Amino acid sequence: xxxxxxxxxxxxxxxxxxxxxxxxxxxxxxxxxxxxxxxxxxxxxxxxxxxxxxxxxxxxxxxxxxxxxxxxxxxxxxxxxxxxxxxxxxxxxxxxxxxxxxxxxxxx
Length: 108
Prior knowledge:
Blueprint: E1 2-4, E2 7-9, E3 16-17, E4 25-27, E5 39-40, H1 44-48, E6 71-72, H2 78-94, E7 106-107
Antiparallel strand pairs: 1-2, 1-4, 3-6, 5-7
């Protein structure tokens, strides 16, 4: 289960969670189940530069975020989940001894 602010959200293998700065959140496995979580913290403005320099990326409460589910499943947005999977694999390779990409961090 994933808790974001006042929302309780189911979470399955392959899902991607998006948490805005300052949003309270907690990931918790169901009793008797073991989960492995990977986290990546991105600064979209530093990452995308002039492509998307909107300050809205760093707002704690973007307009409409309370309606945003925070969980993206492979069925709903396969492109996002596949790109995220590739990103996490790449970060895993970098954390094994090479320099990690700028403004990104991963961990179990």
